[in-house]
Design brief:
It contains ten helices and seven strands. The chain is an alpha+beta fold.
């Protein structure tokens, strides 16, 4: 088995991956139309006892990351919380649904001046009106729904995050301490409709306790577009 240096600097680990993609990645089409180079199955490892591996070689919106993760963990799927905390990551997805249902998508070409002005209006309405947010801020069965309110065919609701906490406390040797965001029955439409909120990139993560130490392995679907590597 190949040994691994867990003390590797997170920035060097990330930059090494970027260099690997530039040199060995294969050009492929993807949903944004930008184009990307891609490799499959690359793994990075970090020892969190040495600190949080926050990158310093690129700008990271850490406040947005924290609010988004809290949003996921509460099971929320409405952008109202994010908007009121000035996190814009998901605004366009809800806005696109609003445009389509009001037959405005052709009248307001994406990223045009008129589109941008309407988006600003839309976000302000989400911020100030609970009724508007309830009607137009919902993104559907994305992260929070799958993590905290996974629905079974029998109508049961499974809270995967609470299950993980309970198993870590009561059955730490289990190999089934897993959270899956890939609910095929609910995300099929999301995968095939590129104008709506995408299915989770954090598709699955598993916790493992060995020798009193907690580890987490995350499987993430990601893209490395050209402009992100320059």
């Amino acid at each position: 088995m190949q040994s691994y240096d867990f003390h590797k600097n997170p920035d060097k680990e990330y930059l090494s991956l970027m260099q690997h993609i530039l040199e060995n990645g294969i050009e492929r089409k993807e949903r944004t139309g930008i184009g990307a180079k891609s490799v499959f199955g690359h793994q990075m490892r970090f020892d969190l006892s040495l600190g949080f591996p926050l990158l310093t070689t690129k700008k990271v919106f850490i406040r947005g990351i924290i609010h988004e993760l809290l949003w996921f963990l509460t099971g929320d799927t409405n952008i109202k919380y994010l908007v009121r905390n000035d996190v814009k990551i998901w605004n366009e997805w809800a806005f696109q649904v609003y445009l389509e249902k009001n037959q405005l998508q052709k009248k307001l070409p994406r990223y045009s001046k008129e589109w941008t002005e309407k988006l600003e209006w839309f976000v302000e309405q989400i911020k100030i009106s609970d009724k508007f947010a309830s009607e137009w801020g919902e993104l559907g069965p994305i992260y929070g729904k799958q993590w905290r309110k996974w629905e079974t065919p029998k109508g049961q609701i499974i809270d995967q995050i609470q299950n993980v906490i309970d198993m870590l406390k009561n059955d730490p040797s289990s190999r089934r301490i897993i959270v899956s965001g890939w609910n095929v029955g609910e995300i099929f439409d999301l995968i095939h409709d590129h104008n709506h909120a995408p299915p989770p990139c954090h598709s699955l993560f598993q916790f493992h306790i060995l020798d009193g130490k907690l580890s987490c392995q995350l499987y993430q679907n990601n893209r490395h577009a050209k402009e992100e590597m320059t």
